Amino acid sequence: MDTMRERFASVVSRLLDEDPRLAVVLAEIGADGFRRAAGRHPDRVVNVGIREQLLVGVGGGLALTGMRPVLHTFASFLVERPFEQLKLDFGHQGTGGVLVSAGGSYDWPAGGFTHMAPGDVALLDTLDGWTVHVPGHPDEAETLLRHACAGGDGRGDDRVYVRLSAQTNARPLPVTGEGFLTVRRGGPGAPAVVAVGPLLGGVLDAVRGLDATVLYAATVRPFDAAALRAAVVGSGAPEVVLVEPYLAGTSTAAAAEALADVPHRILGLGTARAELRRYGTAAEHLAAHGLDPRSLRERITGFTAGAAV
Amino acid sequence: MSLMTGDEKHDAAATSTLDALWVLYDRVLRVSPDRPGDPGRDRFLLSKGHGPMAYYAVLAARGFFPAGWLPGFGSYDSPLGHHPDRTLVPGVEIGSGSLGHGLPLAVGTALGLRARGRSGPRVWVLVGDAELDEGSNHEAIDFAGAAGLDRLHVLVIDNSSASHPLPGGVASRFTAAGWSALTVDGRDHEALYAAYTSRHPGRPHAVVARVEPKHA
Fold first, then answer.
1. What pLDDT digit, counting tens, does each position of B156-192 carry?
2. Could you tell me which residue ranges the Transketolase-like pyrimidine-binding domain spans (chain A) (predicted)?
């Protein structure tokens, strides 16, 4: 199976052949994957060099001419470093585009904190109108990338972030680019666990034998409030656990808003705010953040057992 | 311009651009208030969004919006803010104010026009000399020079406002990156016109318009 990044390069290379509106902007990282596409479409595959402010500014300028720009680099250099460019060169101009990141929060632990972006989704939450996809499998990545490149209703102001990861679930789910999927339905009053992207597999392992509803979010923004409400309908005091592969609590406010009219409890799990200052493997980082199946099970059961009676 | 009050802090910034803007809009740019969204139009991006009074005055004089809008400058119900917003003002290509955004956006605009097969439209972007402090400009200058984006033009209004001027002057920063560059008196309309229309095949073009120092 190819990786999500390899799928990104192959799928978007094909889309470049089909859609003359599409353009890819790179800042060295990922350029190899688009070398053949660049040969076919030299005006629509642009490598600006190691210049991430320009990466975003060029994307914004392309959008001003009616192109659909696709910008790619590591999440830390795509969202965190040129954040004000994202805010002004797309949102403030009233234009749209597609950001496709790699690396995420702990895809390259041996690379250390300089190449980790646990805060990317939380940062985008401060801006208006960004759809955020976090695929859990290369096939899902393909579906979501095609959806993102098509650009919603065609007005061109559709802003989409696709967070690719080296972590994947064993099998893809039939994601559509909108909303959550119900993967497992618990009994009345069961807690609802929202698993984001590549953490679904670990969450399903963690809740084995427990009475819990599991929702799968490969698209986290807009947050599917209706699906969450439906998952806890009939529960007097809903319990919600969010399991996200980036900063813990990123979606807590969205979940609280979805349940604003009922007393509820929320546990937001994700990566820790404090730097680990460790290298090693992704499995070691998952465990250190308490996101491996055993830790998740302990934290979920501890949370539900802790409800006031 | 005297109709617009409330941003006197930026009076110097506004008047520094007036002559250069007028010559550009009057004699060079192919833009029309009748077709502000014409895909074949030239693009003018005001990057230095500070002190946009001269810009608004020129746009009003060219008929993009009624001069009656000018006295509302900066008020809640006016589309004319102390920094322009493209979604509010006809003829304004970008919302600006935060320095260092226009030139990268102009590079993308030039690339986008090329990708759409439009070789006609020229892209102009106005920056201030102190705005060149922002590193994003240098990412854009070096890339545009290397890419040979000859539809791209930069108008630098140089009122010596940078605390730490570029060594060797503004024009040499551009020529070092492979641009064509000319420095002229920013109050001399004929000199401005000649610099604006100078040929620069295969290279982007910078016009440095020198005006009275801000801190004279």
1. 999 999 999 999 999 999 999 999 999 999 999 999 9
2. 2-172
Q: Tally A–B CB contacts below 8 A.
A: 105
Residue B97 is assigned to a structural domain of this protein: yes
The answer to whether the Cβ–Cβ distance between B112 and A53 falls below 8 Å is: no
Give the tens place of pLDDT for each residue, A92-150. 999 999 999 999 999 999 999 999 999 999 999 999 999 999 999 999 999 999 999 99
* pTM of structure: 0.96
Strand locations in A109-226 (E):
130-133, 159-163, 181-184, 192-196, 213-217, 219-221
Residue type, B62: R
On whether both A120 and A251 belong to a single domain, the answer is no
Task: Assign residue A150 the CATH number of its domain.
Answer: 3.40.50.970
Interface contact B98-A44, CB threshold 8 A: no
Which CATH number belongs to the domain containing residue B146 in this structure? 3.40.50.970
The reply to whether residue A64 touches residue B109, judged by beta carbons under 8 angstroms, is yes
Q: Do B95 and A93 touch (CB under 8 A)?
A: yes
The residue segments making up the domain with residue A14 are 4-163
> Which of A21, A86, A89 to mutate to test binding with chain B, by most B CBs within 10 Å of its CB?
A89
Cα–Cα distance for residue pair B30/B25, rounded to 1 Å: 8
Cβ pair B45, B125 in contact under 8 A: yes
Quote the tokens at residue A45. Answer: 């595959």
Alpha-carbon gap: A12 to the closest alpha carbon of chain B (Å): 17
